[in-house]
């Protein structure tokens, strides 16, 4: 099993236990991680996506995935 790369961003949502990135399989060398988001940004994105589904009246998708934007990490 490949080792996850060390994460340098302490506040990234994919930095688990302050050590390894759960998203990447190889370290990014020479530039910033394009996937970096804080927990706050991720949660706001989930809330925005939920609101977009409500605006589009896609209640079937909301029900199918049982997404509640106020319960962290549950789809």
Describe this structure in words.
This protein has a two-stranded antiparallel ribbon with strand order 1-2. Strand 1 (15-16) and strand 2 form a beta hairpin. The chain has helices spanning 39-55, 59-65, and strands at 15-16, 20-21. The two termini are 27 Å apart. The protein has two domains: 1-37, no CATH class; 39-75, no CATH class. The protein contains two helices and two strands; from the N terminus they run ββαα. With 75 residues, it is mainly alpha-helical.
List keywords for this structure.
75 residues; mainly alpha; 2 domains; 2 helices; 5% strand; elongated
Total DSSP helices:
2
In what order do the strands lie side by side in the largest sheet? 1-2
Unreliable spans are none
Evaluate the radius of gyration: 15 Å
Query: Which range best describes the helical content: under 10%, 10-25%, 25-40%, 40-55%, 55-70% or over 70%?
Result: 25-40%
What is the multimeric organization of the chains shown? single chain
Mean pLDDT: 77
Q: How many individual β-strands?
A: 2
Q: Summary?
A:
With 75 residues, the protein is mostly helical.
Task: List the topology elements.
Elements: E1 15-16, E2 20-21, H1 39-55, H2 59-65
Antiparallel strand pairs: 1-2
């Amino acid at each position: 099993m490949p080792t996850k790369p060390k994460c340098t961003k302490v506040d990234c949502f994919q930095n688990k236990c302050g050590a390894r990135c759960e998203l990447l399989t190889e370290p990014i060398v020479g530039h910033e991680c394009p996937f970096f988001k804080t927990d706050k940004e991720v949660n706001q994105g989930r809330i925005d996506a939920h609101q977009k589904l409500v605006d589009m009246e896609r209640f079937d998708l909301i029900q199918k995935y049982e997404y509640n934007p106020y319960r962290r990490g549950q789809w």
